Amino acid sequence: MDNLIRLNIKGISYSQTQTGAYALILEEKVGGRKLPIIIGSFEAQSIALALEKDINPPRPLTHDLFVSLGKEFHLNVDSIYIYKLEDGVFYSNIVFLNEDGNRAEIDSRTSDAIALAVRFNAPIYAYEHVVEKAGIHLDIVQEEEDNISRTVNQLEDELDLLAGLENDLNEYEGWTKDELDTEMKKAVQNEDYELAARLRDQIDNMEN
């Protein structure tokens, strides 16, 4: 098997070819080749949040949950590596270590593997044949800070919206089921479906 190449995250930017997708740019730590990987918006948001570090979502994301589980059961991500590119899809493994030094490799989507690598401060690698096949010499028009900040700005807006919805629900603490049901119907009439759905969930919780 050929050598592993250490990669760093160069930036995240909007995909120019796929609507609603993002391009995650990985770059050789030593060398000029860059590896563009198309990822979904959720994964892009998760990676951007982990890179920014000073933004905390109101509730843990799926990748944050993995970190909590890892700490609870003394598992650490040692590294991740991209081992194959086939039909435009990158294949990756996550290398886990427990407190006794036992090692396990788990197959993963590359975007998930990188989201965990950032959270565990684990190195990112790719095999030479993958970098040779998919790597390009690419001039990034914007610095990686600008690319990541653009994504983070969107996330801040979404997190502000979530926080606002939670504050809205706090206003209804102590309300009866009938009062909540009336408020939910008002939300539907006002086409505020996000609030209506959350009020519905709160009513369901009361019934259960």
Automatic annotation (TrEMBL):
Keywords: DNA damage, SOS response
Pfam families per UniProt: BFN_dom, UVR
Keyword DNA damage: yes
GO BP annotations listed: SOS response
Domain BFN, first and last residues per copy: 4-138
Gene Ontology molecular function: any one: nuclease activity
UVR domain residues: 178-208
Protein's name according to its UniProt entry: BFN domain-containing protein
